[in-house]
Request: fold
Amino acid sequence: MSVAHPSGTAKERLRPGAEFTGDGAFSGADLRRLDDAIRDARLASTASASTLLAQVAAGGEAVALTEQHCVFDHCAVLLFPRTLTAGLRHLERRGLAPLPTVPSTVVRRRLSTRHGLDPAACQVHITRLRLELPNGRRQAAVEVFLFPRDSAGFDRRVEESEAAHGFEHHTAFVVPRPSPPLLARLVTAWRTEAGLLWEGGGHNPHEGGPQGSTVMYFVRDHAWPSPRRRFELHCAGDLRDFTARIAKETEAVDRAYADWRRTIHDGPR
Reply:
């Protein structure tokens, strides 16, 4: 069986939960995926927008707008610690300096919808890990979603599916000065020139300052193959009025995820 890197590629894995090593906070499969996310973030921190977006049309706005108005922020991974406390202690012992956790709203909703969970029992927490990056900065460049095994909504089948597919893995850019006109241009350019489909997002009041933050997610169209399958635009503030006006391409998004599942189970096309 296979597991997706943070960038969306697959590699061999052990059955989730079958192997716990060291302090027993995470399975061996989770630790390998965490290492993949750390390596991916270090590479992405110095990569060009054209490299990260890949398959991008030449001479358009997608690369120019991304380079001018976006900054690489993080790579993300979903892990399943034995308990939240045990998971955070493990990360601290590794010198990754996890930031204080905040509750997830968007990923909790996505997991609940995808697996038929009760959102109230789906206890997903977010932390950021500080890395020494190749450009000399120390940045919280890995976002970790923690779904503890002792939470009421945990189900081994959820772990099995999420570890195999990596649906919450993504590469994120922060938009330091977001505005609806700029974001509308970015969304259009990413869709038409990089094959990135708008799949929704949401507002998290728990992070990003007094007005929280807004995240916008994109999944790669199956007709534009690339190792990086998902991207995020991360903006401070509440932009729900803007995101509510973006029309979802539901059928295209569904096809992209169906193709993702086939690629993982059957191998690259």
About this structure: Residues 44 and 196 are 18 Å apart (CA to CA). Confidence is low (pLDDT under 50) at residues 1-18.
